[in-house]
Specification:
By secondary structure, the chain is mainly β. The strands form four sheets. It has a six-stranded parallel β-sheet with strand order 1-4-7-10-15-18, covered by helices on one side. A five-stranded parallel β-sheet has the order 2-5-8-11-16, with no helix packed on it. The radius of gyration is 15 Å and the shape is globular.
Length: 171
């Protein structure tokens, strides 16, 4: 429903129709807590776009170890959102792409740590198991803002083999 506002991105995703090219727009200043289940791209073909500039970019902040943006469906896009880690000891993945998440697009995401003990350990995780991988993805125009003396292990981790993953213009 193009005129309906929802309080959370997951509520909006739940109302979307898979493979219908549904678009979810996050307004400037939108903010949510990021948990293991609060931002799950679970409907194929859905696109989430954040509006706003500077401090008004839609922001998802985790204060729990498992806080992550999960991509569990194919043909999804997430654009212009900020993911902030505020969990002491570090949170494992800012974005976790499940094996079903082929043809994903991450465009213009911003990753921020709040202290060298409150950081993303992996910013984008693309997993792999035997003969199955999240392939044909694009990670572009993302800004990874880490801190000195932290414990980050990988900015972008592509575990094993995937095919046709494009990593372009990330900073």
């Amino acid at each position: 429903n193009a005129t309906k506002a929802y309080a959370t991105v997951n509520k909006a995703i739940s109302k979307a129709t898979a493979n219908n090219d549904d678009l979810i727009v996050l307004l400037p200043g939108h903010a949510e807590a990021l948990t293991a289940t609060s931002f799950v791209m679970s409907k194929a073909g859905v696109k989430v776009i954040g509006l706003g500039e500077g401090s008004r970019i839609p922001t998802f902040t985790t204060a729990v170890e498992g806080g992550t943006l999960s991509i569990t469906a194919a043909n999804v896009t997430v654009e212009r959102v900020r993911l902030v880690c505020n969990y002491t000891g570090g949170s494992t993945n800012a974005v976790n792409i499940a094996l079903a998440g082929a043809y994903y697009n991450l465009d213009g995401l911003e990753f921020r740590d709040t202290a060298n003990t409150k950081e993303w350990l992996i910013h984008v995780n693309v997993p792999h198991t035997t003969n199955v991988s999240a392939s044909n993805g694009t990670i572009q125009n993302c800004n990874i803002i880490g801190l000195i003396a932290g414990s980050c292990t990988n900015a972008i981790l592509i575990d094993g083999s995937t095919s046709n993953t494009r990593i372009v213009n990330n900073f």
